[in-house]
Amino acid sequence: MEKFTNVMSSADKVEALEITEETVIVRSGITHVEDPGTEDQPGFTGWKIETEEVYEKDEYIKLMAEKNDSLDQQATDLQLALAEVYEQIIS
Fold first, then answer.
1. Closest Cα partner for 22 from 50, 61, 49?
2. Cα–Cα distance measured from residue 28 to residue 26, given in angstroms and rounded to the nearest whole number
3. pLDDT for position 62
4. Strands 23-35 and 17-19, how do they pair?
5. Strand, coil or helix: what is 90?
6. How do the pLDDT tens digits run along the chain, 91 residues long?
7. Could you give the C-alpha distances from 10 to 7, 48, 71, in angstroms and in order?
8. In which region does residue 68 sit, left (phi positive, over 0), alpha (psi from -120 to 50) or beta (all else)?
9. Using CA atoms, how far apart are residues 27 and 16, in angstroms rounded to an integer?
10. How many Å apart are CA 67 and CA 6, to the nearest integer?
11. What pTM does this model have?
12. Reduced to 3 DSSP states, what percent helix, strand and coil does the chain have, rounded to the nearest 5?
């Protein structure tokens, strides 16, 4: 994974999640920018992206599978804790 911060883009549209044949790009903190510029510097119209993470597709799939497993375990732990609370209430 490669991580970039404060990326500027002049693309017409910037998606938070972009999937290509080989990579997955995850962007956050996307804001539209219109800077008129000054006499010394030209203006800029486009997008500012706080963070942009570029993954190889297989790497991203593995990361999502690991996160999914973690969420499954958290849901199971929560269900067990709720069952214990319920048993204490009805006792």
1. 61
2. 7
3. 97
4. antiparallel
5. helix
6. 999 999 999 999 999 999 999 999 999 999 999 988 888 888 899 999 999 999 999 999 999 999 999 999 999 999 999 999 999 999 8
7. 10, 9, 37
8. alpha
9. 5
10. 26
11. 0.74
12. 35, 40, 20
**Cα gap 66→25, rounded to integer Å:** 18
Dihedral sign, Cα of residue 43, residue 49, residue 53, residue 55: negative
CA distance 13 to 32: 10
Query: How many residues are listed for the chain in this entry?
Result: 91
**Are the CB atoms for 26 and 14 separated by under 8 Å?**
no
